[in-house]
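<instruction>
Derive structure tokens from the sequence
<data>
Labelled lines for chain and fold
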Amino acid sequence: MFSNPTAITFIGYLLVMVGVGFFAYYHTRSYGDYILGGRSLGGLVTALSVGASDMSGWLLMGLPGAVFLSGISQSWIGIGLTIGAYTNWCIVAARLRVYTEKTHNALTLPDYFSHRFEDKQNLLRIIAAFVILLFFTIYCASGVVAGARLFENTFGMPYEQALILGAAATILYVFIGGFLAVSWTDTIQATLMCIALIVTPFAVMMDLGGFTAATERVASIDPKMLNILEGHTALGIVSLLAWGLGYFGQPHILVRFMATRSISVIPNARRVGTLWMMFCLAGAVGVGFFGAAFFAEHKDVAGLVQENHERVFIVLSGLLFNPWIAGILMSAILAAVMSTLSCQLLVCSSTLTEDFYRTFIRRNASQRELVWVGRSMVLAVSAVAVWLARDPNSLVLSLVSYAWAGFGAAFGPVIIMSLWWRRMTRNGALAGMVTGAITVLVWNHYAWFGLYEILPGFVFAIIAIVVVSLLDKAPNERISKTFDEVRSIVKAPSSAA
């Protein structure tokens, strides 16, 4: 089982990731280090960590598979995500970094919400923490299933064994090294994903005789595969582009902004992160697009892909490269799964530790105690995720589809408005959070107009924030003063530049 080159490469890759975890352990001296890396991340690590934590197995399997079946018309989500990610860097990153430091050095999003609005009752903290734990535990379970499926197919082992083995390495390096381990491994994983998605479509294209020949072959299959508007209405395109709105509310992405060394590294991080995303998404589309031409040309090896179109990257890697190179490229899928899972585990752990244990149980807990509580919470969340993942067809896992829209609509408008609108109040934030979440749930159920639920959820949440805040008493002088301080700090570097 462990004698073929792909398996050896997999095992080697896992050992490297765990090794990084141990290295990070020796740089983790406080609870702030474990949860947020001591706010020490440079531009490159921040950029690649944001990318890797965001892009799961969907990037290497879901998107190429969709393009393989239907052509480049499936790339609209990728375009929406790129626009959303870039805008998130522009309007959220710097302000959130400064604001979280100014509001009692907030380490989590619920912590930030609580201090930003001086919420003495901790309502914002409790609701936000509950939403994070609910959706991210399910998210983690889906990541564990994806990892188990990969190990199951690669090593030919039973699902139950693959489940444990697939989760163990990720859990281990998050447990040991915390945020630094997650960020450093993300950097390696993002690099691997990008290389895999550039090399593979290029190799396929060359095998088919170049770009023109490959494109003509796709056209001969179905000319509609070259039409980016095929099968879409204007409302459908808007719906797909709306996926980009989700970025503003994803906790595992936003904490990366909070962890940067200073706002001076953000412009470079934004450029690197956006370029990485463009290369990866273009590569993923290329894998599916040229893969369709390849398997039309080589029908004798198309069986596995016809059976499951999401295997297009896996099968192409095995056919076009020697086993050692194929093993490295296959590790990119494992990287995509592990990077997202590790970030989500850490966010759940930090929420349980900071927003429940430290806030309600042990206010005066020592740094060492909090680090070990954080590690214990990683194990606890992992255990629940593995338990949920024991049945890969569980209906619970279908809730993942809600998570992106749920976080985007519940947290996104609150984050943006809290950073940019001085007059916003605590009750306005509560109204926005609840309205966004409820709209997503209701809209998803009824599927009105075929519109992706994040768009109405986002719009209605902003309206709720504005209306309730204006009806509410204006924020006190301390809150307004902090807002003005943040604004002046963020403006200073840009005006100097």
About this structure: Residues 159-207 form the longest helix (49 residues).
